[in-house]
Amino acid sequence: MPKNKKWSREKIHDRFSSMLKADGTPMSRQQIHMLRKKAQGLCLTCGEPAVGVYCLKHTIAARERMRKKLKYQRRLHNSSSYLLEKAKKTKVKGKAKKTGAKKKK
Ligand SMILES: [Zn+2]
Questions:
Q1: Domain assignment present for 48
Q2: How far, in Å, is the centroid of ligand 1 from the Cα of 24?
Q3: What is the per-residue pLDDT across 57-90, written as a single tens digit (0 to 9) for each?
């Protein structure tokens, strides 16, 4: 494999491969993929470093999705997703972000 290549076509053999569900049937590759991401602390959707199970962007997306679905009226403004959202907004105004890759909204 070339030095910079981080993936391969080889099947991954780790503690998640050939895992079984509670009813004894094999877990789908998508479910295993999510478990691997979770174990590495990466976002389940995009693979960025995660806050909980998702990155900030997808934590907010999940929050808003569930709010809509469950018809929540109140917001818990001290929960981590709101605090981080706020912190990020003020940070962008002042200095460039840590990653500094994109300046899009
Ligand atoms: Zn994400």
A1: yes
A2: 30
A3: 999 999 999 999 999 888 888 888 898 888 888 8
